[in-house]
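TASK: fixed-backbone design
INPUT:
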């Protein structure tokens, strides 16, 4: 059993600290206390345990050990990692499949409450694949696109079509290495087959298919999901939102949506604004329904509707501890089974909605897009009926404003406007050195680390070094809770060059790009930067790094691997799942070295696990500077910029008239 931590060691979020103290007062377990009580297995944690057949489990603990079948440490580690990547790819891609079927149903008028909201994006995406768009209705185009996207999951031969949106040079490399997926399901099934007892036993060959499986996520399943979400619910653009537990309202029915499916959350948003539901809530003694989100569902409705985020992954239990939540409505992924037991101590109803997910003791109301609005109203009325059962309420005061909604389309627009939309200004800012490079800081919370600390520590330090930060998922909510997703908040903490760019364009130094499935937006941005020119002809030449400081899920491993395959350097915090025990077992880090050094030779990207934020920051900056040098760009100089652009003009305008003339025209005072 590990040492019990102090509350402030669990999280840097003061709202979360308040609720953890309340849990301790009530004698209630949370993920934080359970992490302290649970000692992880060091053999399994190093990837050196195999349980793929009934002859084991086999635990390899010293040099020369092999499994009952003779499997070596590196074979076992490669199999374990590949199976985790397959599970992560399956989760995200299954989400994409559901979105494709929803698009098909909407196109054929078979749903309730849905419509095609972004016809321009529908036409643009269809044109990528040669689907006719002229003189055709949006529904006709959507039907053909849905059919194409549905086919990508079961396709047995050929190549998934979204890969054609990658840089040409990257596509050529993938073809040479044989990692372009044939179909999403095809690669996931083969990953499980290859890692079955007695199959693939060369660790590098196993990991080649791990890359192919991850590619089926990033360049197919997840990209499809993002495309369709934008088409159906609107492509995100900046708007004002709020984050943290203080968004819950004492005088309203609080419904928290948690999970990953926007089809459900978008319809609950619509239902909550229906006059019938508002009147029903007022009749129950409340002033209305207050919706908020947890995890990636929070990001989905935050960036499109401005619905507040109650928090990220580790806030799901804490929101119930407030006593103010009438219902938590969940669908798929990242939902703790502990919620039901915790909710039984309060009045909160846990409502599962996906045919894929049931939790013992929860209320199950299966969601069906064909009757979406009716079901959403049913769920909300159940929550409203529960308002009378509410007991003592403890809602923290903490909440922060933020600006989410930076889709790759909006970034393109904001850099050039309606008539000159372009990534040229971003590329030029990097070329000149105003922006040193770009960091994508994404991923989960992990209760084995201090919640939000690694995310925000890395963000803040990189901003000081003129590194532009983009974020998705729980990492974005971590920064939001500290006010880093506002233009005026934290702008005085960024480097002078980056500050000039942010002030000139009118953006915060941290751009919220969506949910974890929307990491494909980052791939699209990198591709467009390549196509714009000046930063090489492939993604691996761009001064950019991806980081997941508090990762915990199999989805994160799939995301990391498809980003590496795309040419990115990816850094994970915490423990490696295939780290081995070099101090006890010779060569137990072969796989760890291969996904760094071996993958870098093959793909130009690599995956490394770095425990401390200081080392993460050091490695990030070193990589960015290395890529700048390789492109022949000037070395970053921290004091070179900061006296031009909007910042200088604001200073000039504050001067007396005669000094203002001198500053602008170089004229002597009269």
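OUTPUT:
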């Amino acid at each position: 059993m590990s040492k019990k931590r102090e509350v402030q060691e669990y999280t840097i979020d003061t709202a979360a600290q308040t609720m953890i103290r309340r849990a301790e007062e009530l004698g209630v377990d949370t993920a934080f206390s359970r992490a302290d009580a649970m000692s992880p297995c060091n053999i399994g944690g190093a990837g050196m345990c195999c349980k793929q057949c009934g002859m084991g489990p086999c635990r390899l603990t010293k040099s020369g050990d092999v499994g009952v079948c003779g499997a070596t440490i590196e074979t076992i580690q490669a199999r374990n990692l590949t199976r985790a990547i397959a599970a992560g790819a399956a989760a995200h891609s299954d989400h994409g499949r559901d979105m494709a079927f929803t698009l098909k149903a909407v196109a054929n008028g078979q749903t309730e409450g849905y419509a095609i909201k972004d016809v321009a994006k529908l036409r643009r995406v269809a044109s990528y694949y040669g689907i006719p768009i002229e003189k055709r209705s949006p529904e006709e185009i959507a039907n053909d696109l849905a059919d194409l996207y549905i086919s990508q999951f079961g396709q047995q031969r050929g190549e998934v079509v979204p890969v054609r949106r990658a840089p040409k040079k990257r596509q050529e490399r993938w073809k040479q290495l044989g990692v372009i997926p044939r179909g999403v399901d095809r690669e996931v099934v083969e990953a499980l087959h290859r890692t079955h007892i007695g199959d693939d036993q060369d660790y590098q060959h196993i990991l080649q298919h791990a890359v192919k499986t991850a590619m089926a996520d990033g360049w197919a399943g997840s990209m499809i999901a993002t495309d369709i979400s934008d088409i159906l619910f609107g492509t995100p653009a900046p708007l004002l939102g709020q984050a943290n537990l203080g968004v819950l309202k004492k005088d309203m029915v609080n419904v928290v949506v948690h999970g990953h499916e926007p089809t459900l959350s978008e319809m609950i948003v619509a239902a909550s604004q229906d006059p019938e539901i508002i009147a029903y809530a007022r009749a129950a003694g409340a002033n209305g329904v207050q919706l908020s989100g947890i995890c990636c569902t929070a990001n989905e409705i935050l960036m499109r509707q401005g619905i507040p985020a109650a928090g990220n992954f580790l806030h799901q239990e804490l929101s119930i501890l407030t006593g103010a939540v009438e219902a938590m409505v969940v669908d798929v992924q990242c939902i703790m089974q502990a919620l039901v037991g915790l909710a039984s101590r309060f009045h909160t109803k846990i409502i599962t909605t996906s045919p894929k997910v049931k939790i013992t003791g929860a209320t199950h109301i299966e969601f069906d897009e064909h009757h979406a609005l009716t079901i959403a109203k049913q769920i909300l009325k159940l929550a409203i009926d529960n308002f009378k059962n509410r007991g003592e309420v403890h809602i923290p005061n903490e909440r922060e404003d933020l600006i989410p909604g930076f889709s790759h389309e909006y970034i393109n627009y904001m850099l050039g406007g309606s008539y000159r939309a372009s990534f040229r200004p971003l590329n030029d800012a990097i070329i000149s050195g105003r922006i040193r490079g770009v960091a994508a800081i994404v991923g989960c919370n992990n209760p084995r680390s201090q919640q939000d600390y690694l995310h925000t520590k890395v963000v803040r330090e990189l901003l000081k070094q003129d590194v532009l930060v983009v974020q998705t998922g729980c990492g974005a909510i971590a920064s939001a809770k500290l006010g880093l997703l506002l233009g005026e908040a934290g702008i005085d903490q960024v480097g002078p060059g980056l500050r000039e760019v942010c002030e000139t364009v009118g953006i915060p130094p941290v751009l919220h790009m969506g949910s974890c499935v929307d990491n494909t937006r980052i791939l699209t941005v990198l591709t467009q930067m390549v196509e714009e020119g000046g930063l090489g002809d492939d993604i691996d030449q761009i001064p950019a790094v991806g980081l997941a400081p508090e990762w915990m899920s199999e989805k994160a491993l799939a995301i990391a691997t498809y980003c590496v395959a795309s040419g990115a350097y990816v850094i994970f915090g915490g423990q490696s799942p295939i780290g081995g025990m070099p101090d006890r077992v010779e060569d137990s880090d072969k796989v760890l070295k291969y996904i760094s050094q071996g993958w870098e030779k093959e793909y130009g990207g690599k995956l490394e696990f770095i425990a401390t934020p200081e080392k993460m920051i050091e490695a990030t900056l070193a990589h960015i500077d290395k890529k700048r040098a390789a492109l022949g760009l000037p070395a970053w100089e921290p004091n070179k910029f900061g006296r031009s652009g909007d910042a200088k003009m604001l200073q000039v305008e504050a001067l007396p008239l005669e000094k203002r003339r001198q500053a602008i025209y170089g004229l002597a005072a009269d």
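COMMENT: The chain has five domains: 7-59, 73-233, 241-389, 419-574+610-630, 641-670.
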